[in-house]
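#structure-requests
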Amino acid sequence: MITGEPMPVEKHPGDKVTGATINGNGSFMMRAEKIGGDTLLAQIVNMVSQAQRSRAPIQRLADKVSGYFVPLVILVALIAGIAWAIYGPEPRPGYAILNAVAVLIIACPCALGLATPMAIMAGTGRGAKAGLLIKNAEALETFEKVDTLIVDKTGTLTEGKPKLMNVITAEGFDEATVLSLAASLERGSEHPLAEAIVKGAEAKGIQLINATEFQAVTGKGVTGKINGRSVALGNLALLESLGIAVMGVKTKADSYRAQGHTAMFLGIDGKAAGIITVADPIKETTVEAIK
């Protein structure tokens, strides 16, 4: 909810959790340290409010100009009034007041002082409606000069739903077997990556088998038995803890990770059987959105 990432964030005892986010599996006790106006959501709302009240560099320039311009306008208005009072037609006092006020009304730089704050309020408010948080008015002004866009949140440019991308097999194993055992095992997991593998296998017409002795190892992966075969699917730490050598497939996993994929190792009967990679696909609208 906060980072925009589609992958769950692993938490350990003592870590902080954010209100209104979802706990993937298991249960835990937490201490509420912030409530009401101290919560993260309230701080975001407050930040938008502060941005609307902040001053942009251009506004300081406008205020400086106004500081010189307003006294000058008043002086010109006084000169105009005095000139009409001395040299104008009768009734001179009436014409003097009328023309002095006319100079003030026409030359007074009201728009100079009001335009920038109004633009900032409109800009930050419109941004908030579009899900765009602007820290302050200076950032809003600076943004006009930006010519490079760097995005660090995958969920912004991607679908936010992981999908099965590749099935890489080790020697002695075929793709259908690897994917069938992996998806059959993951069917018992609530993890988003597990859902991606199961859906990917079903899309390929792979028949799933019921797993027994299913166990989710927190922060590592899952293990179980399928048709009498011991199957483990997870990260490097899981397979190493089971005494399975992964040197043959580790290099391949690293190459896919470099492309932004999440690589999971599959072990079957104490041997490294292959790698399954999952990634968050780019949205079709991403190019247009960046433009």
